[in-house]
Amino acid sequence: MRRAAAVIATLVAAATGALAAEIPLDQRRPDSDFISADSRAMQNDDTANPAMLVLLDGETLWNTKAGAANRSCADCHGDAEKSMKGVAARYPAYASELGRPVDLAQQINLSRTMDQKAPAFAFESKELLALTVYIARQSRGMPVAIKEDAKAKSFIAAGRALFEQRQGQLNLSCAQCHDDNWGKTLAGNLIPQAMPTGYPIYRLEWQAVGSLQRRLRNCMSGMRAETYSFGAPELVDLEYYLMWRARGLPMEAPAVRP
Amino acid sequence: MARALIHVPPSAKRGEVIEIKTLISHVMETGYRIGVTGQPIPRDIIEDFVCTYNGEEVFRAKLYPAIAANPFISFFTIATESGTIAFSWTDQHGATQVQTAAITVE
């Protein structure tokens, strides 16, 4: 632990000087604690949560044959309600094919290109989000199960360094808001602890479903920093760290956020 | 065909007030936004929503550009008799989508 902290300190020393204090495990709360009761009710009611429309598209795609292999997701994985239970709670995860971690959407595309022999879906495409929502939904209520094992360690550390690094014209780090000032307001909105247990989310501002990467890019442009492109290793590392940070909290995908 | 989710209680007592919830996928494009090419994105909205209970109209709504995407409409009615509750959404081009739900009233 001390060595990891030292590595991060070296990486970010120039930018931040001191490390922000990580939120103690017993004080962590899901992001849904920081939204209005109305939005929370919308999220938890399957007949009101608009992401459920996308989920139906995902279910159709799950059962649709695709690619040169002419196989559907269901042909190999069977009933998603059984086979995909808990899967989203374990992503991002190390993909040995690539030698680095991938998030759930990228894993879907890996299966698509390698097993179905079909072209990958574009990031943030309707299809990719629909399948991700459908798979993520199967883990609702289960605890986030990211383990900081030997393969994960360096990537989680890189994500953490990015989280704590000041960036952009406003010279802010993620940690300054989400570790140091959660629960306070920013432009009238409560600052959550950045526990990404509900992605893909239906964001009312977007009037659509979007991924954690889209949300991270939002935050970065809000800090007037240069955003990483979709699928960039930096974004996946950051997702990895954030999910590790949320370990043990219940999954709530697809969540509704303001 | 757009995706729609409808919640009607499958059974109710006669005279009971029941809550009906509907959700339909639709962009509800206002016509006021500018696309990436600098051209305005044309308006595309659902204009009418009607609910009938065994053919009799029990609820109607007019929708305008200020309604968000994926309109969620919820309302109450009285369970009078067993039968079919039908929902129809009509967009500005005149295309109508109809979905039905059955209810048993004891």
What can you tell me about this protein's structure?
The complex is a heterodimer of chains A (258) and B (106). Chain A has 258 residues and is mostly helical. Chain A has two domains: 2-11 and 28-45 and 150-257, Orthogonal Bundle (Cytochrome Bc1 Complex, Chain D, domain 2); 52-137, Cytochrome Bc1 Complex, Chain D, domain 2, CATH 1.10.760. Chain A is 43% helix and 7% strand. In chain A, the strands form three sheets. In chain A, strands 6-5-7 form a three-stranded mixed β-sheet. A two-stranded antiparallel ribbon of chain A has the order 1-2. A two-stranded antiparallel ribbon of chain A has the order 3-4. In chain A, a hairpin with a 4-residue loop joins strand 1 (93-95) and strand 2 (100-102). Chain A is globular, with a radius of gyration of 18 Å. Chain B has 106 residues and is mostly beta strands. Chain B has one domain: Immunoglobulins (Immunoglobulin-like, Sandwich). Chain B is built from no helices and eight strands. Chain B has strands at residues 4-7, 11-12, 17-24, 46-53, 56-62, 72-78, 83-91, 96-105. In chain B, strands 2-8-7-4-5 form a five-stranded mixed β-sheet, with no helix packed on it. In chain B, strands 1-3-6 form a three-stranded antiparallel β-sheet, with no helix packed on it. The radius of gyration of chain B is 16 Å and the shape is elongated. The A-B interface holds A 45-48, 50, 52-54, 56-57, 204, 207-208 and B 3-7, 21, 23-25, 28, 68-70, 72, 74.
